[in-house]
Design brief:
Blueprint (H helix, E strand, L loop, with lengths): L2 H21 L6 E8 L4 E10 L2 E13 L2 E7 L5 H7 L7 E2 L5 H4 L12 H11 L23
Parallel strand pairs: 4-5
Antiparallel strand pairs: 1-2, 2-3, 3-4
């Protein structure tokens, strides 16, 4: 089994176990949802519903498989998904604590996360550096984005 498939199966198993444990003590009005987008490598455990007359929407865990690494974007578990991955034998250099800024990541025991796709990062920086105007200043006509997409 290749690394990507192995990692995919592992994160699916770990998150499924966490969700199963969470469902043993359900919260009234709150639904626990596990989303797995295997084609794009996104795995998310969230809670949605209504509590005390207010909308509840919480991302408990969000992990992406990118560049043959686990990118932990969000983690509100007690022990941490990274610790669980290490217990399962995943090397620390294959785990990125993406919820930390790049400078902080350098000071952790995990991967600092230099991406292997420099062209993708450069394109993202170009697009993200263009700030959207405030709603009151936006034009009503569609905006042409790089790649021909219309916003």
């Amino acid at each position: 089994m290749d690394k990507q498939t192995s990692y995919r199966n592992l994160i699916k198993r770990i998150l499924s176990e966490y969700v199963e444990l969470s469902n043993r003590q359900p919260q009234p009005g709150i639904e626990t949802i596990l989303i797995m987008d295997e084609a794009r490598g996104h795995y998310m455990w969230l809670k949605l519903g209504w509590a005390d007359g207010k909308r509840a929407k919480y991302i408990t865990v969000y992990v992406r498989l990118r560049d043959a690494r686990f990118w932990i974007e969000e983690d509100w578990t007690e022990g941490g998904i990274a610790s669980e991955l290490v217990r399962e034998g995943i090397p620390r250099e294959d785990i990125v604590l993406a919820f930390h800024d790049p400078e902080t990541r350098k000071h952790t025991d995990f991967a600092a996360a230099r991406t292997r796709h420099k062209r993708t990062v450069a394109a993202f920086r170009t697009v993200s550096s263009r700030r959207r105007p405030a709603a009151s200043q936006r034009q009503s006509s569609p905006v042409q984005l790089p790649g021909g997409q219309v916003e």
